[in-house]
Specification:
The protein is an alpha+beta fold and 232 residues long. 29% of the residues lie in helices and 45% in strands. The strands form two sheets. Strands 1-2-3-4-11-10 form a six-stranded antiparallel beta sheet, sandwiched between helices. A hairpin with a 2-residue loop joins strand 2 and strand 3. The longest helix is centred in the first third of the chain and has 40 residues. It comes from Streptomyces natalensis ATCC 27448.
């Protein structure tokens, strides 16, 4: 009976040591992964990386991690002298394959991502004292209210649509008011302020944008990918 108690005690101690060692190992791996992602993606700050699943060490032994999540912070995209800031970007990678020497990641079977852009940053990116605000959705298209700066017209306001494709975010006025079209150069002036294209070249793992939704407090973007190559 005494020997059994000692055996149980030893088993418990070994279990505790395994858990502690496992958590130390995953913490170290998360830190290393965060540093590599920052350097490879050119991020402003070191991202927060979380490796899911337990135990971690058995996942490493099988050279496959169940899930790796990354909070990447902000990023920027420039076009025609205007910079669009993405204030928050996160990504979730599933079935992540490790290299044969266990020192780097190679790919993920699938991945999803989420990003957010505030109307303040969208307004700043449009330039020229343009104001952009929430306008809901119409016919399945996410819309914004755009107030361009046209000196000859007071309180001009147009509705614009935001669309995404690949790594590109597009903003375009749906229609220019008739009173503007009747004035020389007015339409081109408005279009120069309302129509923009930004490419988000820093999307992790070459994820592709697949949906945009306008919300009262900002614009939400989602991305996804399969057989995603990861920075290693």
């Amino acid at each position: 009976m005494r020997a059994l108690k000692w055996l149980l005690f030893v088993v418990v101690i070994l279990g505790v040591l395994f858990v502690v060692g496992d958590r130390v190992a995953v913490s170290y791996a998360e830190s290393m992964a965060a540093d590599k992602i920052r350097s490879s993606q050119g991020l402003e700050k070191t991202p927060e990386v979380s490796i899911k699943g337990f135990p971690f060490l058995t996942q490493v032994a099988g050279r496959s991690l169940t899930e790796v999540d990354a909070e990447l912070g902000g990023m920027s995209a420039s076009a025609d002298g205007h910079t669009l800031r993405v204030e928050k970007l996160s990504a979730q990678f599933h079935d992540v394959a490790l290299s044969s020497d266990y020192t780097s990641v190679q790919s993920a079977a699938s991945a999803t991502g989420n990003a957010r852009i505030s109307y303040a940053d969208l307004t700043k990116a449009a330039g020229g004292d343009v104001k952009i605000a929430y306008a809901g959705e119409k016919n399945g298209r996410s819309q914004v209210k755009i107030s361009p700066n046209v000196p000859v017209l007071n309180s001009l306001e147009v509705t614009g649509s935001i669309t995404v494709s690949g790594n590109t975010v597009r903003l375009r006025a749906d229609q220019i008011p008739a009173m503007c079209r009747a004035l020389p150069a007015c339409q081109s002036t408005v279009r120069s302020q309302t129509d923009h294209v930004w490419k988000l070249d820093q999307l992790p793992g070459n994820l592709k944008l697949d949906k945009v939704v306008t919300q009262p407090d900002g614009i939400s973007l989602t991305a996804s990918g399969h057989d995603v190559k990861l920075p290693g």
